[in-house]
Amino acid sequence: GVSAAYNDNVFGEPSNRQGDLITTLMPVVFLEAGTRGSAQLLYAPTVGHFSKYKDLSSVNQAVFFRLRYPFTKLKLGLDAFYLTSSGLFISNDQGGFAQQSTFLTRIFGEYPVADKVMVELMEESVWQNTDPGGSQMEHSLKGRVYYQVTPSVKAGMSLKVGVYDAPAEDQVYQSLELSSSWRITDALVLSGDAGIEMRHLS
Fold first, then answer.
1. CB 41 within 8 A of CB 53
2. pTM for this structure?
3. CA 124, 127, 129 angle in degrees (round to 5)?
4. Sign of the four-CA dihedral 118, 155, 39, 102
5. Residue 38 to residue 67: CA distance in whole angstroms
6. CA 29 to CA 47: how far, in whole Å?
């Protein structure tokens, strides 16, 4: 779609406000394939044009990919997305205009070990770079066990370990979580979570 808006304070200053007309173009491309399994691709760039302060104009990218494939019992999945954003209001130490890129991958599988017990294992990696500001990386591995108490009630436990690498400090963390859900109707589900997390700084 296409939209236009006038911002009377594009720099967010308390005084000496400067206005500009901003035109935004947001096309979307979606592709899907598969019979037994499925693959989906979404591409949604955003083009922002400033009429007066043209240096603030930007082209941001958003790419999402989703893959699912079920075997007889084992189900595998892959999620990935790449996102870029730029502007004056991204959090960074220096302030002002900044550019940020984020890339995430998530690989997981689930397997029923019994009639009412499901086991899931998931690996997730996130890379983020901010200019100015630097880059950071996070890797995590999570295991979950679900038990179907009744047809509408499910309870589970998960354990997660991960590492976080950033310019300021590195972290190693572990977390334990208990969860439950109650499906009242097809449109209404109540859920609750409780857990503990420990982080070690280096």
1. no
2. 0.78
3. 165
4. negative
5. 6
6. 14
